[in-house]
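Issue: ligand-bound run for S-adenosylmethionine - logging full I/O for the record.

Environment: standard queue, default settings, no custom constraints.

Inputs:
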Amino acid sequence: MSEPAPRHWEIFLEVFEALPRQGPGSRASTARALKLCGDLPPSPSVLDLGCGTGAQTLHLAELTSGCIVAIDSHAPSIERLCQTVTDLGLANRVFPRVGDIAHPQEPPESFDLVWSEGALYNLGLERALPICRDMLRPRAYLGFTDAIWRKQSPPPEVRAMFEDYPTMGTVGDALGVIAQSGLSTVGHFTLPHEAWWDDFYAPMERRIETLRTTYAGAPNALAALEEVAQEPEIHRRHSAYYAYEFFVARR
Ligand SMILES: C[S@@+](CC[C@H](N)C(=O)[O-])C[C@H]1O[C@@H](n2cnc3c(N)ncnc32)[C@H](O)[C@@H]1O
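Outputs:
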């Protein structure tokens, strides 16, 4: 029997779509960042950019009583979030839709809070932050996470892991871009160890193990899984070189 030869991207999606989150993050970190947004209205209007399958969207829906528009470009993630929203009875105030962070297609200055966990790197902060800013009402808040360098001269495999982060810099660089974008930083903190593992790398490694069994005898698939498995391994060895930082800013 010939092997289905799934491409790397298909395997990548098969791993990532099944995870509780598609990037580093945790309920504790989302709650801590939201607390920095001191004077939000009681029912804020929220825009969640690059929501993925919506872990932080649903948590924001728990932590606030506001309406949340959640945008992601990957239709299957939005389909899954729509189903969860319906199952949880949140369809009257959580509105997932397929969309592009670069063109949120929402009226300018219409949100009390713009949120984005692990997604703005796709545009780069220089491009993404002015877009976020334009969505904010005066004095409204922006909370986002982004990868940052902690040490110079990372090993080549670490550089390769972040090749999709063309404008990645230090915390200081990110704070500079926040200021240049017409925003004031309210606070920032580094995501802790467990924000990488509990809902992201630990379930990822379990998922990879399951798929290794599913694809036993399919060398192309196993090779693709091996490649995906490098990411948590690199994190085990080299997390001193990089981190994810939560930034909260306001207009
Ligand atoms: C690392 S994942 C983070 C997802 C989610 N926020 C989380 O933390 O679980 C990045 C997400 O950004 C989405 N994305 C990438 N580029 C995008 C764009 N231009 N517009 C909207 N979503 C985008 C991807 O589909 C993916 O779901």
